[in-house]
Specification:
CATH topology of the largest domain in chain B: Rossmann fold
Structural class of chain B: alpha/beta
Oligomer: heterodimer
Order of helices and strands of chain B: HEEHEEEHEHEHEHEHEHH
Strand order of the largest sheet of chain A: 7-6-5-4-3-2-10-9-8
Number of strands of chain B: 10
Structural class of chain A: alpha/beta
Largest sheet of chain B: 5 strands, parallel
Number of helices of chain A: 20
Strand order of the largest sheet of chain B: 7-6-8-9-10
Strand content of chain B: 15-25%
Distance between the termini of chain B: 65 Å
Strand content of chain A: 5-15%
Mean pLDDT of chain B: 84
Distance between the termini of chain A: 22 Å
CATH class of the domain at 1-35 and 310-487 in chain A: Alpha Beta
CATH topology of the domain at 1-35 and 310-487 in chain A: TIM Barrel
Helix content of chain B: 25-40%
Low-confidence stretches of chain B: 248-274
Helix content of chain A: 40-55%
Mean pLDDT of chain A: 94
CATH class of the largest domain in chain B: Alpha Beta
Number of strands of chain A: 11
CATH architecture of the domain at 1-35 and 310-487 in chain A: Alpha-Beta Barrel
Largest sheet of chain A: 9 strands, parallel
Number of domains of chain B: 2
Largest interface: A-B, 27 and 25 residues
Number of helices of chain B: 9
Chain lengths: ~525, ~270
């Protein structure tokens, strides 16, 4: 089921090409921006890739200490790699960790090396970053091996969420979810982690409405799911969130600990967390390059637009965001099969023909991105305390998923509006999914909307509105459009928002070994293809 | 018991008055067998459901069973002993609210909203403030008499106070959805204390809190003026603001009477001038 034959929606290929070319035009200046700036988190990610982990007694990571110290001495604009590996070359420090500890105590003065010293630091840092990338490559191969050994579940992959706040509670819950039928387990992060400008360290047992993303938590959870994958004879994927102020570092940790999917939207942090747009786009590009290398499927967050805006009026903003996410993703080296573009069943159920509208929107996403593993998100906005009505709504959501061959199905809970899911909620939800999926197996094949009928027309209308919006964005420039409140009604100017002080424009001497290696790798891959 | 008293006493209704029929579902941490069903019935009896019937039992994993139970509830409800907070203000239309604001303040009423602390769930505050609104009612942004500033998610308390001072907010709306470890109560208490500290007594903006897990009666305990719970519409909030800050005609506060007279006078003048 890759290419889906002739379009069911009879989309005009020239119109589709136009939409993509507009997305490219809108995105290009952003890519230039991303290529000419760095952030504290990008630099910390390089250090993490080179193997620096751990934190001081107060929990402040060594990578933060090093980047802060380099920044204080020589600024951020050259990148931290040359100053750091230049300092290491002095031979005064056994390794990165010792250097970090000394730097934290204020005992290191960093310099930006020049000439031969610079090229020596360059070579050394490249070697260190390459070692990290090798680990990521090995993990990717291990995943491939495990999906063969244990088996890769058929689509749609059933996506369940775990969120206790305590990694040691999460593990048995995740294993239980896998036994109940989850193909993907997502560990929701603690509320507020997106605004932390450091990645917490070690196993954590206290989180609000979720569990902190840490390297050790990633490792523990992946190991727990490996055990249950062997038991069930099916590879269970692990998902976390590469978003917020530490996006590049978390992406790197995900690659190092073999996470399989990462939430990674191009604009979510800007709109919903008020993170500075430039910070986000710079962090974004690096994190997507890492995801591309690691074979991680990204999940984008278009469903979020519809939680604030109207599911019918704002349908085209989802399409626009999907096209932008596709452009940014591919530019960073992600393959189609790694683009888990999101969309959601969020139309008010009292709207006449809401089900047909949902079908039209879901099918439009399917037809526009035939090779992307689309992520289909259940209703949240119109879920109420009426759990019985909610159960029916989730059934219709599942039905749209089946009829339009969605790839990643987030399981909707009947108690969505009431509490975090109980054991029985999850069981009932999975029964709902199983009934719909099994009873309608193959229905996507039979379901062909009437020529020029309601669904076809509606999809054309949404695509048309998406093109109009993209044209406006191209005219206005994407950063201005974001500042003007084009998305989700939120105004986010480029010179405001969180994390702006952690952004620097590259100097002519800027060097980042990880970016260089990732760029080369992608250029090679392109050359081979 | 007299006939009159009897009408205050009710019981659940299945398909006939007084049948007391109730449906519940729950999970017990045991595998499904006869003993498990017996355990479910024992629990039902202790909840006052007798006779009860296990109509559905399904094992979930090796150690749990989900039950649906129907039964006759032996408890009675005395309507005279039910305590609720009745709405203390009249519901106004958006036009009436804006008119009241204009009359009383002669400038727009400044409303500021935010989710505070780590809470990132803007659904509630957006439903009340965004033009789009909720439940078929437009949000406060659509009211011509209100000047709305939505600060969005994860605003710190010091920032909130600073913005309120800069904007000269008349009212501050705070939404709290995350309730893990009573975060909502902690955040709100901290917020109201910060406002009391930053403003001279009696000059702080009207503090309004909303969220699905608040107790409507806990306003004074939390140091705020009003709590709105699940199901609140923008119109209710706007009407409350008008009632509280603009002395609507239906109000009973003394200050209001005064303002009303002025308003009336003005109206008379107008007529005269015409």
């Amino acid at each position: 089921m890759t290419r889906r034959g002739k379009g069911k929606l009879e989309l005009d290929p020239t119109v589709v090409r136009k939409a993509r070319s507009l997305a490219r035009k809108a995105g290009k200046p952003i890519v230039t921006l991303a290529k000419t700036h760095t952030t504290v988190s990008v630099e910390r990610a390089v250090l993490r890739l080179a193997g620096l982990s751990g934190a001081d007694a107060e929990g402040e990571p060594w990578v933060n200490h090093v980047v802060d110290a380099v920044r204080q001495d020589v600024g951020l604009e050259h990148g931290v790699s040359l100053p750091v590996w230049h300092a290491l070359a002095s031979g005064e420090y056994a390794d990165l960790t010792e250097l970090a500890q000394k730097a934290a105590a204020g005992g290191v003065i960093f310099h930006a090396p020049e000439g031969r010293e610079a090229s020596r630091a360059r070579t050394a840092s490249r070697k260190a970053a390459a070692a990290g990338l090798r680990k990521i490559d090995i993990n990717r191969k291990t995943r491939d091996r495990f999906t063969k050994k244990y088996g890769d579940p058929p689509k749609p992959w059933i996506y369940l969420i775990v969120a206790t706040g305590d990694i040691y509670e999460d593990m048995p819950q995740a294993q239980a979810a896998a036994r109940e039928g989850a193909d993907i387990v997502a560990v929701i992060r603690s509320t507020g982690q997106s605004l932390l400008d450091f990645v917490p360290e070690g196993p954590t047992r206290e989180g609000y409405a979720g569990t902190y993303a840490t390297q050790e938590n990633f490792r523990l959870m992946r190991a727990a799911l490996d055990d249950v994958s062997a038991e069930l004879g099916r590879y269970v994927r692990l998902t976390n969130y590469a978003s917020g102020l530490c996006m590049p570092e978390i992406a790197t940790l995900a690659g190092l600990e073999r996470l399989d999917m990462m939430l990674n939207d191009s604009m979510y942090g800007i709109l919903f967390r008020d993170i500075n747009p430039i910070r986000t786009f710079v962090d974004q590009r690096f994190s997507r390059q890492v995801h591309a290398r690691a074979g991680i499927i990204i999940n984008t967050g278009e469903d979020n637009y519809l939680t604030t805006a109207d599911g019918v009026e704002a349908a085209h903003t989802v399409t626009v965001s999907q096209l932008l996410n596709e452009f940014f993703g591919k530019e960073a080296g992600l393959a189609d099969a790694q683009l888990g573009l999101g969309h959601a069943f969020e139309i008010n159920p009292t709207v006449p023909e809401s089900f047909r509208l949902e079908l039209a929107h879901a099918l439009l996403a399917r037809e526009l991105f035939p090779n992307a593993p689309l992520k289909w998100m259940p209703p949240t906005k119109h879920m109420t305390g009426d759990v019985f009505g909610g159960y029916l709504l989730n059934g219709f959501f599942n039905l749209v998923g089946s009829m339009t061959a969605q790839d990643i199905l987030l399981v909707g809970m009947l108690t969505e509006a009431v509490h975090t899911p109980w054991l029985s909620d999850r069981d009932l939800a999975l029964q709902n999914v199983r009934y719909v999926m099994e009873s309608t197996r193959g229905l996507a094949e039979d379901f062909v909307p009437a020529h020029d009928g309601f669904i076809v027309q509606r999809s054309h209308q949404v695509l048309g509105e998406a093109i109009e919006l993209l044209e406006r964005i191209v005219d206005d420039q994407l950063l201005n459009a974001i500042a003007d409140g084009t998305f989700g009604l939120m105004k986010r100017p480029a010179d405001a928002g969180r994390g702006l002080d952690g952004v620097a424009r590259h100097s002519s001497a800027y060097y980042n070994p990880a970016s260089e290696l990732l760029d080369e790798y992608f250029a090679d891959a392109k050359g081979q293809a | 018991m007299s006939k009159r008293e009897e009408s205050h006493i009710i019981r659940p209704y299945g398909d006939a008055t007084g049948d007391g029929q109730v449906q519940v579902s729950f999970t017990l941490p045991v595998a499904h067998d006869k003993r498990a069903e017996g355990a479910a019935l024992q629990l039902a009896a202790k909840m006052g459901l007798e006779p009860a019937m296990v109509v559905h039992a399904k094992q979930m994993g090796p150690h749990f069973t989900f039950f649906v139970v129907y039964g006759r509830c032996s408890h009675l409800v005395d309507l005279n002993k039910v305590v609720v907070i009745e709405r203390e203000f009249p519901l106004l239309t958006p036009k009436e609210v804006s008119a009241a604001v204009k009359r009383a303040l002669r400038r727009p009423l400044v409303v500021m909203g935010a989710c505070i602390g780590t809470d990132a769930h803007t659904v509630g505050i957006d439903a009340i403030l965004n033009i789009k609104g909720w439940a078929g009612e437009k949000g406060l942004e659509a009211y011509s008499g209100l000047e709305v500033h939505n600060l969005g998610a994860q605003v710190s308390v010091p920032d909130l106070v600073e913005h309120a001072q800069n904007l000269k907010a008349d009212a501050v709306l705070v939404s709290q959805v995350v309730t893990q470890r009573e975060a909502h109560l902690h955040n709100v208490t901290q917020m109201s204390a910060a406002f009391r500290e930053a403003y001279p007594t009696g000059t702080a903006p009207v503090l309004i809190v909303g969220g699905p897990r608040f107790d409507e009666g806990a306003a004074s305990e939390l140091g705020v003026d009003r709590i709105f719970v699940k199901g609140t519409t923008p119109g209710e909030v706007a009407s409350y603001l008008a009632h509280r800050l603009c002395a609507t005609p239906a109000g009973t506060r003394r200050a209001k009477a005064k303002k009303r007279t002025t308003a009336k006078k003005k109206a008379t003048n107008k007529t005269g001038a015409r």
